[in-house]
Amino acid sequence: MRAxxxxxxxxxxxxxxxxxxxxxxxxxxPPGAPGTVGPRAFPLGLGFVLGGLALLLLACSYWKGTTESxxxxxxxxxxxxxxxxxxxGHHRRARGCECW
Length: 100
Fold this sequence. Notes:
Number of strands: 0
Radius of gyration: 21 Å
Order of helices and strands: HH
Largest sheet: none
Strand content: under 5%
């Protein structure tokens, strides 16, 4: 499985977890007094941050998927860009998410 596909699956799982977390916090933790920050604010904020990071991971995985297909090079056994051929003891450089 390619790294981009793994990241997409992970992002969807984290996004589902964040949505479930926000819904659980919204329905179980009391809001507090009007006009002040209540006990719901911090857990709700954590859910939104997790959801935002999951969306960032999802966006980067789609961007990574397009650059991986561009870097793979010819499919007829010739070396790709950089002169390395996969499967012959050479490892391609690991690229992180460079979407920012």
